[in-house]
């Protein structure tokens, strides 16, 4: 019988390998820094002074250990589910593929961001952004899996295709993918839209759901008037209607939003507010302090990943098989 703790063994093995390679890269001096990074001794984009040691931004780099702790904690919870035989009432109970993907990606956010802040290389920035998109895609695509009655196989094919396309386009064209698209930022809106549809689905809401995206964008300082006055730059607002397009059915399950969903949202919003102060041009920037705003952003968003993990585990059936899409639903 396969041990329920096998995913944890794999995770520790991967972390050990990463640690060896990271230290080796640091000792070797890394390689050519990205064009937008500062020289050793100067103040980095994220406020901390650039070090000539193993880590270019030591505090911001080590702040990512929060993701490692959160991801390992998730894996232990899933292993315990499997060990005690807890009923798999949703896809985030036990060592199921979606649950392991979520925990694994949450953990990987740490090493990926460590490479960015530790090495200041283009590769580090690339893998950091790929990991962020890998995480946020799960949240809104899983909602579409439920609302569209997709099979698990469909989820993984679509998820892998979108993530692979993003990774390739970022490597070739940079952060805007050559089309002025911030997929991570847009995905935050897509997740909230999909969550509203999950909770309040109706045919009319499917048509109007994209309007929710304008409200989400406003929270981050991009108002509807700004987007409408520069439609060329903000063309991606049409994607706000993507969840409504695929949300063909009402959810056959319900989630408990208090406390974990709201705790995750609050943690992320506080983290974002702190993130805005963690740049080299902000008046509060103190590059030589051991208290760095960007490191706090990492720790708070790591906590948010845990909150949303617990929130997803609260999903329960409402009389109709909530997992119909994984066994007999539409493809």
Give a brief rundown of this model:
This protein is mostly helical and 331 residues long. It has helices at 6-27, 58-62, 65-84, 97-119, 122-147, 152-173, 183-200, 203-208, 210-219, 224-229, 242-246, 260-275, 293-312, 324-327, and strands spanning 253-254, 316-317. Strands 1-2 form a two-stranded antiparallel ribbon.
Task: Draw up the topology in text.
Elements: H1 6-27, H2 58-62, H3 65-84, H4 97-119, H5 122-147, H6 152-173, H7 183-200, H8 203-208, H9 210-219, H10 224-229, H11 242-246, E1 253-254, H12 260-275, H13 293-312, E2 316-317, H14 324-327
Antiparallel strand pairs: 1-2
Task: Please provide the ordered H/E string of secondary-structure elements.
Answer: HHHHHHHHHHHEHHEH
Please tell me what the overall shape is.
globular
Unreliably modeled segments: 319-331
Radius of gyration: 20 Å
Strand order of the largest sheet: 1-2
Mean pLDDT: 94
**Beta strands, count:** 2
Distance between the termini: 31 Å
Task: Indicate the multimeric state.
Answer: single chain
Instruction: Summarize the biggest pleated sheet.
Output: 2 strands, antiparallel
Kindly name the structural category: mainly alpha
Binned strand content: under 5%
Individual helix count: 14
Q: How much helicity do the residues have?
A: 55-70%
